Amino acid sequence: MMANKSTMKTHHEPLFHVVKRDDMSAGKAWLVRISTIVISFIFIGFVSMVLTGKNFGEAFETMFLGAFGRIFDGRMTMLWKYLQDVAILLALSLALTPAFKMKFWNCGAEGQTLMGGLASIICMIELGGKMQTLPLIAVIAVSSIAAGAIWGLIPAIFKALFNTNETLFTLMMNYIATQIIAYYVYIKGGGSNVINPVPYGNFPTVGDNDYFVNIVIVAVITILMFIYLKFSKQGYEISVVGESQNTARYVGINVKKVIIRTMVISGALCGVTGMLLVAGKDHSINTNLVGGQGFTAILMSWLGQFNPFIMVFMTGIVIFLKLGVAKIADDALLNSSFSEIIVGFVILMLVGCEFFIHYSIKFRHNKKEVKA
Description:
By secondary structure, the chain is mainly alpha-helical. The protein has one domain: ABC transporter involved in vitamin B12 uptake, BtuC (Orthogonal Bundle). Helices cover 71% and strands 4% of the residues. It contains 14 helices and four strands. It has helices spanning 2-7, 26-52, 56-68, 77-101, 109-127, 133-162, 166-188, 212-231, 233-243, 245-250, 255-282, 293-303, 308-331, 337-358; strands spanning 9-11, 16-20, 359-363, 369-371. Helix 4 (77-101) runs parallel beside helix 8 and helix 4 crosses helix 9. The radius of gyration is 25 Å and the shape is globular.
């Protein structure tokens, strides 16, 4: 009897545990996402009201002006700048999407974009004035795509052949790319760490709009990426490898080939983004060319569920908040970090909402269980 009592133990459930939900309907999932965005905007309005003394309406009017300018007065410059910023972040997100859908954690968008930009600026400086504009732009495009693709190929080969950690590998290559850019700028800038805008190889303007070509290029890439991932054989292989490499091998897919090919595509698209930043926007280069957007693009790709059209929506919201809240901070003489804090909060809210769409938290019952 005593032996039986000694073998009985009181088992306590944990306070809570995370349980995967059954698939939530698309309608309910989007209702949760939209509700999260609305709550985030209400919070932004409340914080702005407290810090600036403006009411909700004035706060959002300021945000609208910061993002779009006075479009109702026919002034479209700010709107085009907004679309340009959306296009750059979207281009980076699209570039990362094939790799992340394959579950290759490519954290090297910054470096791959910098190398694409480096190829662009080298062509602009060395070949500018020696070639006609259109052939020069063609050379810039090929060089930038190749540079980005090579920078993406290196970690892919090591992952495919030696199973290295791609996260660390791509992060380290970001630092290498940054130092290469710093060295090049130092040499070409004559020690001033600045390269003056290069007048050759720049994308043509449409009217007074400097950003039209960039926006059109990214729009085309968005459509092509959707078709590639959704309907092509390679897009199917990416999905299968992302679900299970063992399953992919079982059905006859060459996993190593898919990894290398996908990272070449990812790096090449980052190279295109570098070209857009150098030849289509800044006409120069520095180590802050990408401005950390390569890491924001990771979140945009995940939050967009690897769907290019959802990513358009997500990047549009983030850029609206970034520009709009920056305008609020500028008018109220707040610290420039205010905008980054607010954008970070909204992204955190969106990530949290994705968690609760796919998982639920079950709290323990008060009743204790006894096991022998």
